[in-house]
Amino acid sequence: MEKLIVMGGGESGVGAAILGKDKSYDVFLSDFSKLKPKFKAKLQKEEIDFEEGGHTVSRLQEADLIVKSPGISDDLEVIKNLRESGIKIVSEIEFASWFTGANIIGITGSNGKTTVTNMVYHILKNAGLSVSMAGNVGFSFAEQVARQSFHNYVLELSSFQLDGVEDFRPHIAILTSITPDHLDRYHDNFQEYIQAKFKITKNQTKDDFLIYNKDDKVIVNWLEKNTVKAQLIPFTNTTIMTDLSAFIENNKINIKLNHNLFTMSVNDLSVKGDHNTRNAMAASTAARLLKIRKQTIRESMESFQGVEHRLEQLGKINKVAFINDSKATNINATFYALDSMTAPTVWIVGGVDKGNVYEDLLPLVNEKVKAIVCLGIDNQKIYNSFSNCVDTIIESSNMTDAVAKAYGLTEDNDAVLLSPACASFDLFENYEDRGRQFKEAIQYLKK
């Protein structure tokens, strides 16, 4: 019996352990931190052996195969040593893909991937297909492969998940954007991060498709210099007319797949903004490749409600609007958020800096932001970047404090925007926890 060791006991790790047991591996899970009670209970129910609060290196070295959770860096000494000893280390996405023949739509990008993933899932679900979402969203891909049998998986894939890919091959890959992100994990080397993103297409063949953002110079530049076996389908907010393309003409989305043309008015999209038009083009292109009816796609795009924690409108208190963009964990995502603001804005920003260059936001901050509330342990870079163009910059100790201070700086018809441009791990469990606390703090204000 092959020995499978899973490193990391979160959603993906526990899912991998369950799939491993299902496929007759001898499974052991090891987590450096304390396991959450719900994950510990799951492992105990499945009778899977585990340890928490540290790795026993001698046990790790017994592995025939290691599935490593995406949060664990390849640069850790223990990981380097295990690789050097010849042990194969893969991601949960790679491991799960070995045990399913389902059709896979893989979606990655610095920004937009969650929205596109949800859009594709929404269309396929409305079309009556057997489909599930997994990867960076929803429940573990591996656990779903073990416990259920879907014909289609829509996978949101982070660069960390793609780092551990060897044979993983999506039939349709979507690349939404590449901007500097997670550079702390990639040795401050943007090229390493770009390479990680493009691993989504490395095993694709001429029978597969790569749908990509032609308006993204980083993506276009990489494609000009590298060979891709998949059929390329660009999407763009400008006008192009190649046999395989998605583009805008006369305020309409046009998707051209050889002799087949799909059109939809941009005005009919439920979510607004240029970035969401691109997202809709990418998702609709994937749906057309899967032969989804045109009317189903149109109806789905008209009814799509957006994604929680991404420019989520939370209503008003005394004529002050509150917008939850907790999912904005990098500069580019916050750029979209600030660009969409039409009211004078009190901006809540900060967290764990991933190598941010805040200066890219200066023109928008200068135009849109009347005050800044810092939400992080170390806010010096924010002060240094914006003190010359924003008169009021204050610190807060927690989300309730941040929201109260932000509201106190507003007048009628202003807006409070949570768009942190940073990871959440200094004060929160994850961006969802940060967004939920933002909503709770607003409810507290209403009392």
UniProtKB/TrEMBL annotation:
<dbReference type="GO" id="GO:0008360">
    <property type="term" value="P:regulation of cell shape"/>
</dbReference>
<comment type="similarity">
    <text>Belongs to the MurCDEF family.</text>
</comment>
<protein>
    <recommendedName>
        <fullName>UDP-N-acetylmuramoylalanine--D-glutamate ligase</fullName>
        <ecNumber>6.3.2.9</ecNumber>
    </recommendedName>
</protein>
<dbReference type="GO" id="GO:0051301">
    <property type="term" value="P:cell division"/>
</dbReference>
<feature type="domain" description="Mur ligase central">
    <location>
        <begin position="107"/>
        <end position="287"/>
    </location>
</feature>
<keyword id="KW-0961">Cell wall biogenesis/degradation</keyword>
<feature type="binding site">
    <location>
        <begin position="109"/>
        <end position="115"/>
    </location>
    <ligand>
        <name>ATP</name>
    </ligand>
</feature>
<dbReference type="Pfam" id="PF08245">
    <property type="entry name" value="Mur_ligase_M"/>
</dbReference>
<dbReference type="InterPro" id="IPR005762">
    <property type="entry name" value="MurD"/>
</dbReference>
<keyword id="KW-0132">Cell division</keyword>
<keyword id="KW-0067">ATP-binding</keyword>
<dbReference type="InterPro" id="IPR013221">
    <property type="entry name" value="Mur_ligase_cen"/>
</dbReference>
<dbReference type="GO" id="GO:0008764">
    <property type="term" value="F:UDP-N-acetylmuramoylalanine-D-glutamate ligase activity"/>
</dbReference>
<dbReference type="InterPro" id="IPR004101">
    <property type="entry name" value="Mur_ligase_C"/>
</dbReference>
<dbReference type="GO" id="GO:0009252">
    <property type="term" value="P:peptidoglycan biosynthetic process"/>
</dbReference>
<dbReference type="Pfam" id="PF21377">
    <property type="entry name" value="MurD_N"/>
</dbReference>
<keyword id="KW-0131">Cell cycle</keyword>
<dbReference type="InterPro" id="IPR036565">
    <property type="entry name" value="Mur-like_cat_sf"/>
</dbReference>
<dbReference type="GO" id="GO:0005524">
    <property type="term" value="F:ATP binding"/>
</dbReference>
<keyword id="KW-0573">Peptidoglycan synthesis</keyword>
<comment type="pathway">
    <text>Cell wall biogenesis; peptidoglycan biosynthesis.</text>
</comment>
<dbReference type="Pfam" id="PF02875">
    <property type="entry name" value="Mur_ligase_C"/>
</dbReference>
<keyword id="KW-0963">Cytoplasm</keyword>
<feature type="domain" description="Mur ligase C-terminal">
    <location>
        <begin position="309"/>
        <end position="422"/>
    </location>
</feature>
<comment type="function">
    <text>Cell wall formation. Catalyzes the addition of glutamate to the nucleotide precursor UDP-N-acetylmuramoyl-L-alanine (UMA).</text>
</comment>
<dbReference type="GO" id="GO:0071555">
    <property type="term" value="P:cell wall organization"/>
</dbReference>
<dbReference type="GO" id="GO:0005737">
    <property type="term" value="C:cytoplasm"/>
</dbReference>
<dbReference type="InterPro" id="IPR036615">
    <property type="entry name" value="Mur_ligase_C_dom_sf"/>
</dbReference>
<keyword id="KW-0547">Nucleotide-binding</keyword>
<keyword id="KW-0436">Ligase</keyword>
<keyword id="KW-0133">Cell shape</keyword>
